[in-house]
Design brief:
The complex is a heterotrimer of chains A (558), B (385) and C (268).
Chain A lengths: L1 H16 L2 H9 L1 E2 L7 H20 L8 E3 L11 E3 H12 L3 H28 L8 H23 L4 H16 L4 H9 L8 H31 L13 E6 H26 L5 H4 L18 H9 L5 E3 L2 E3 L1 H29 L15 H20 L2 H8 L3 H40 L1 E8 L5 E6 L3 H7 L26 H13 L32 H14 L2
Antiparallel strand pairs in A: 1-4, 2-3, 5-6, 7-8
Chain B lengths: L77 H31 L5 H33 L5 E4 L7 H18 L5 H21 L22 E3 L4 E2 L11 E6 L6 H7 L1 E5 L27 E5 L11 E3 L4 E3 L6 E3 L5 E4 L11 E3 L5 E3 L19
Helix pairs in contact in B: 1-2
Chain C lengths: L1 H5 L6 H20 L18 H11 L1 H4 L16 H10 L21 H15 L7 H4 L6 H11 L1 H4 L6 E2 L5 E2 L7 H10 L14 H16 L13 H24 L8
Antiparallel strand pairs in C: 1-2
Helix pairs in contact in C: 3-6, 5-6, 5-10, 8-11, 10-11
Classes of the chains: A mainly alpha (558), B alpha+beta (385), C mainly alpha (268).
Chain lengths: 558, 385, 268
């Protein structure tokens, strides 16, 4: 069977496309296996589902704000004036077989898309997979994240219902508040005064043509770069910075990724069968004078909503012009801060640590305590803003006074990230110490033995090679130029004042870690000389010490 | 079962000998490129022998070295694989049936009513989900149990190109740059760059007609002297005598504009009825100096813009007992007895008050437009009046 | 401190920490949950029969807060002029008699029979007039226009009660209740009398026909099936987002764990 396929179709294609060698390389490409590597795939497959379902919806949706009087299946709204966009969405939901299902799949897939991007982004950050040579891919990822937010915003605003219309109004108010150009931006986007008649058709074109086009190009680039540079891998036995260990693309990875695509599709379909999402018929058509309590945007815009809600009433009016800080600070600051910090981070880290090597083995998050702690601080910052976005729902369902929720959030947005940083760092260091203990003393066996001298010791057995490789010494970040081991206390000339000094300080904080080989940068690490060295290493085996020296050596001269 | 030393794996005795490894050689149980099944112990056919003896594999004149398979042909656990195969087949059968069920559900379940759509959604969704789930589970079990476990290693080449490649590239690039005259003839270069600037700006210029300039459009609404207030929804005109219960609140719109969203987005107001003495018209009784209600009321009925001064949501949540107007979007709170002054939340300015009076027929009408722009702040907006 | 660290490996240590954490969380929550003061409301009303029976019920159940002659006390507002509609609403929804002072009285189990409520309402109406209990015809849904009801509802009601009447938060611990359990008569009465923080929508502001339309919208919406599946409380994107993370993403993570799980290798 295979012979026939190869000699028939295969031959035909090869004679035209010269594919044998390239395809073979592609087929043999090795893919390392770890469940966290599939998070990006969730996003990718959600995107494909969005394309498929979106195409179906586009055959029925009318992106027009022309007013019509409704006389359709949903009799509760009979005689009500609404836009064609809203009416066509009602028709898709109630008059097209499978229409509601596809609409819901589209919306659930959109939510999953952004959730997966967030999870994937965090995974990349916490394992240090953005480091050289993957910085560009990280930046592309950030752009994809922003585009996903916009795409979702435009998408759920297309049906022109009361809930999403309120969100559009907020968007317009925010736009308008931007100094100097705000009113112009608003008038150009909406084609005049709000709401106008242009915004839905314009968002439609952005949503189905421009942004998906950008997505296809950028996702293509994102995947190609990943292919070309080969995927990173988690530390483990036999895995080094110069190899990739796993199973080949054909048939293993193809099958697994295909199965995962089916799982993603199954999951969103299940959600669309059992969990109603965006019931626009309940919200009613948009009207600029109407609003509901408990109006929130889709979850991924929640943090922007929360920042708008928690901001105190600050504005400046000078010389007949208004700086509406109360609006454009919450609109621009959180997202701007997170994206800018994220974009600069790989380069900042490189500058601080002086580490210009290629990194193809992921860090365990605990082995980069400061980075992990910073990441958690950012996550909790985002989380507080997100929770505040639902403050009235929280107030209603948890029986807390409305203003109290806002005040808690105003304080928490500063306190919680600081706490998260401290706690996460301590947890990482603690976990490292636990690992170090295992490395130095092996696994407890529970067997007590009495030595001839009369002392009692507990026997330990050495870690398996697999576990050893996992716990292995994380590559020590190379010292900033000029310093050599043994003279760490003396900073080189460039680092004694000004920017150099700042860099030295930052380096110290960023590289704070429990040294796994027992020799800390200061010579006397926390467990440096094996304070518990009194424990017999009788059963420890030859592996540990030699491995330490070997790994420590390669790290220092890397 | 398997003998790695000879490169044999189960399934090697099949006529095609395994697709990835090419030729097989060695061992009397192996097959050459011929299709004949060979019996163990039979000497190889004459054409494979020479008078001088068969040359060693890998030496000149001899057969090529046996290619070691990269992937085993079968999994370690064959009995387990047989069981798994049954499970996978079952999954795929379920998927087939569910897929057919989806098509059937599409044909059987009609829509055109909310209840029918509920049933249709359930049927279509369940069958579709089951199809995908069964397929997915089947493929995963297939990969995990039916494919042999492999752990292969591929070397990473350094990403940095070799020095020779780099040098060659630099040579090509420099030669090309020279040949193109780009570097040698500055006027070419400069004028080319100059020419691209307008082309690059043109698309932005083309966007100019996306919308009109704001000018003073944001400063005014459609309210004018004599425009009647309409009770929205019912679209009826309002007499103060009808709107007479203290604690009443209703949404009002300018007469003639009830279907004009552009007008409504700025002109919509709420009117609130108070009992005598509740509205604060002067600062005398204020605990804290601040805004007051302008003398534009009728019978203790006050009209405020409904458009929140934060980002424009309708601020309509009126708490009769505290006389606070709460905007549900971001919880800006305004005090209705004190000119809708902000008492909490991100809004920075009070809701503008609509100047009201009654006309000759006794209906509530506007005296004139608001005396300040309504709605969210913008750059060109000066201080509030 | 040393006493604690010495016992850190005690078998019950883990449980103790969890209990401490729960206690802390509970204390924090109790601190922020509001117990505000009751707000007063006063309106005018009209009279009716069964007054004597009503007066005796009033003396038993209501006078302690509302005063011997319904004139009001520091704990309960005057009921002179609130009318039978207000009494019927408050008592038939169980809000009154109030059990405790709170920012807002929630709906609870009704303690009086319909006959008793009628009598009480008549008595209060006799004191000073006020809006009357609507008749059956006035709350009848026959010929009501829910489309118009929808327009009125979103313009004047949804900002507090939510798109579909699922309720909403107000300030200082008050809330606009969900409209899932209110009868058409109760909805009519609430609009008419404006209980607690709710504004008053008298019959010349929102006419009886318009009130019927609004009631039709509310009752049809709450009994309407959810064609897309479970409604998730009809809360909106907040619950949808939670489902996306906790449901969908978690499901995908579980699938990923299965697909990439090591086959038959022991762990250390």
């Amino acid at each position: 069977m295979i012979d026939r396929a190869l000699s028939g179709t295969g031959n035909w294609l090869d004679e035209r496309f010269h594919g044998a060698k390239g395809l073979r390389t592609f087929f043999r490409k090795i893919f390392p296996d770890h469940w966290t590597f599939l998070l990006g795939e969730i996003a990718l497959y959600s995107f494909i589902i969005l394309l498929l379902t979106g195409t179906f919806l586009a055959f029925f949706f009318k992106p027009s704000m022309t007013e019509v009087v409704y006389h359709g299946v949903y009799t509760k709204l009979d005689g009500v004036k609404m836009s064609e966009a809203y009416a066509s969405t009602l028709r898709i939901s109630f008059d097209v077989r499978g229409g509601l299902l596809i609409r819901q799949i589209h919306h659930w897939a959109a939510d999953l898309f952004v959730a997966a991007i967030l999870a994937h982004m965090l995974r990349i950050f916490f394992t240090g997979a953005y480091r050289k040579p993957r910085e560009v891919n990280w930046l592309i990822g950030l752009v994809l994240f922003t585009l996903a937010l916009l795409e979702g915003l435009f998408g759920y605003s297309l049906p022109d219902d009361l809930l999403s219309g309120a969100g559009l109004r907020i968007t317009q108010g925010v736009l308008q508040s931007i100094p100097i150009v705000g009113t112009y931006l608003s008038f150009f986007l909406f084609g005049g005064q709000y709401p106008g008649h242009s915004i839905i058709p314009r968002m439609y074109i952005l949503h189905v043509l421009l942004i998906p086009g950008l997505f296809l190009a950028l996702i293509g680039a994102h995947l190609f770069i990943m292919f070309h540079q080969k995927h990173t891998q988690m530390p483990g036995k036999g895995r080094t910075n110069t190899n990739v260990v796993g199973a080949p693309m054909y048939p293993y990875f193809m099958a697994k990724t295909g199965a995962f695509f089916l799982f993603v599709f199954a999951a969103v379909t299940l959600a669309s069968t059992f969990a109603q999402i965006n019931p626009i018929w309940l919200y009613g058509p948009y009207n600029p004078l109407a609003i509901s309590s408990g109006s929130q945007p889709d979850f991924y815009m929640g943090f922007l909503e929360g920042s708008l809600r928690m901001m105190p009433a600050w504005q400046w009016v000078v010389f007949g012009h208004t700086f509406a800080f109360n609006v454009f600070i919450p609109a621009l600051l959180p997202l701007g801060l997170i994206l800018t910090a994220a974009a600069f981070w790989p380069f900042l880290e490189q500058w601080i640590t002086g580490d210009k090597r290629e990194h193809h083995v992921n860090d365990r998050p605990r082995n980069a305590p400061t980075r992990t702690a910073l990441g958690m601080a950012a996550v909790s910052f985002y989380g507080v803003l997100w929770a505040e976005g639902a403050n009235d729902v929280i107030a209603q369902h948890l029986d807390i006074s409305l203003y109290t929720v806002t005040w808690i959030a105003r304080i928490a947005v500063f306190v919680v990230p600081a706490l998260a940083y401290i706690i996460t760092k301590r947890i990482c260091l603690g976990l490292q110490r636990k690992d170090l203990h295992l490395l130095e003393h092996g696994v407890e066996t529970g067997i007590i033995r009495q030595l001839p001298s009369g002392e009692f010791i507990e026997e330990t057995r050495p870690l398996s090679e697999e576990a050893l490789a996992k716990l292995a010494v994380p590559e020590r970040l190379p010292l900033p130029a000029g310093r050599t081991d043994g003279e760490e206390d003396v900073p080189p000339p460039t680092m004694r004042r000004g920017v150099g000094r700042v860099k030295a300080r930052l380096n110290k904080v960023l590289t704070e870690t429990v040294p796994m080989n027992g020799h800390g940068p200061n010579g006397h690490g926390p467990d440096g000389h094996g304070a518990d060295g009194d424990h017999a290493r009788a059963a420890l085996g030859p592996s540990a010490d030699e491995d330490h020296d070997a790994e420590g050596g390669s790290g220092e001269h890397g | 079962m398997t003998d790695p030393s000879t490169g044999e794996w189960p399934g090697d005795n099949e006529p095609d000998g395994g697709s990835l490894s090419g030729q097989e050689a060695g061992g009397s149980a192996g097959n050459g490129p011929t299709e004949r099944r060979r019996v163990i112990g039979t000497p190889p056919p004459a054409e494979a022998r020479s008078m001088l003896g068969t040359p060693e594999p890998g030496t000149p004149g001899g057969p090529p070295l046996p290619r070691r398979r990269e992937l085993p042909a079968d999994p370690q656990d064959m009995p387990g694989a047989r069981r798994a195969e049954r499970v996978v087949v079952a999954c795929f059968v379920i998927a087939t049936l569910a897929g057919l069920g989806f098509i059937a559900a599409y044909l059987i379940f009609p829509v055109h009513s909310v209840l029918l759509v509920q049933h249709s959604n359930l049927a279509l969704g369940l069958t579709m989900a089951l199809t995908f789930l069964a397929l997915a589970a089947g493929v995963v079990i297939w990969v995990r149990r039916l494919m042999p476990v492999v752990d292969l290693t591929e070397a990473r080449k350094p990403l940095r190109s070799s020095d020779e490649d780099r040098a060659a590239f630099v040579e090509t690039f420099e030669e090309g740059a020279e040949a193109s005259q780009f570097v040698k003839r500055p006027m070419l270069r400069r004028t080319l760059i100059a020419a691209t600037v307008p082309v690059a700006i043109a698309p932005i210029i083309l966007l100019r007609d996306l919308g009109p300039l704001p000018r003073t459009l944001l400063d005014h609404t459609v309210w004018r002297k004599g425009v009647r207030l309409l009770n929205y929804g019912a679209n009826t005109q309002i007499r103060p005598g009808d709107f007479s219960s203290p604690g009443g609140m209703i949404t009002v719109v300018p007469d003639g504009y009830q279907d004009d969203f552009n007008a409504l987005a700025k002109a919509t107001c709420i009117i609130i009825k108070f009992g005598p003495g509740e509205l604060q018209f002067t600062t005398a009784d204020h605990p804290v100096p601040g805004k007051v209600v302008e003398n534009w009321t009728v019978d203790n009925i006050v009209a405020y813009s409904k458009i929140c001064t934060h980002v424009g949501c309708p601020a309509a949540l009126y708490e009769e007992t505290t006389h606070h107007i709460l905007c549900p979007c971001h919880q800006s709170t305004f005090d209705a007895v004190r000119g809708a002054e902000v008492i909490f939340g991100p809004a920075t300015r009070a809701l503008p008050q609509l100047p009201m009076t009654v006309d000759a027929q006794g209906y509530l009408v506007a005296r004139h437009d608001f005396t300040e722009p309504v709605g969210p702040s913008f750059w060109e907006r000066g201080p509030s009046t | 401190m040393r006493a604690i660290t010495l016992r850190r490996r005690h078998p019950a240590a883990g449980y103790a920490v969890v209990l401490l954490g729960l206690l802390l969380a509970g204390l924090c929550y109790a601190a922020v949950t509001s117990v505000g003061a009751a707000d007063a409301a006063s309106h005018s009303v009209t009279a009716g029969p069964l007054i004597a029976e009503g007066r005796s019920i009033f003396n038993q159940e209501c006078s302690s807060c509302h005063g011997e002659f319904a004139q009001g006390t520091p704990t309960g507002p005057s009921l002179i002029g609130v009318g039978s509609a207000a009494v019927d609403f408050q008592v038939s929804t169980g809000r009154m008699p109030a059990k405790e002072l709170a920012a807002e009285q929630p709906r609870k189990v009704v303690t009086l029979t319909p006959q008793q409520i009628r009598a009480l309402a008549a008595y209060i109406a006799s004191l000073g007039g006020g809006p009357a209990i609507p008749t059956k015809a006035e709350v009848s849904q026959v010929g009501a226009n829910p489309g118009l009801g929808q327009q009125l509802f979103v313009a004047d009601c949804a900002q507090c009660h939510g798109f579909v009447g699922q309720g909403g938060a107000l300030t200082y611990g008050k809330f606009a209740p969900a409209l899932t359990k209110s009868t058409p008569r109760q909805i009519y009465e609430a609009m008419l009398t404006g209980p607690e923080a709710m504004p008053v929508f008298n019959d010349t502001t929102i006419t009886p026909q318009q009130k019927r339309d609004i009631i039709a919208y509310i009752t049809q919406t709450r009994t309407e099936p959810n064609p897309g599946g479970f409604s998730l409380g009809r809360v909106g994107p907040v619950t949808e987002g939670l489902v996306a993370f906790i449901g969908l993403l978690l499901f995908m993570v579980l699938a990923a764990l299965w697909i990439t799980a090591k086959q038959g290798k022991a762990h250390d």
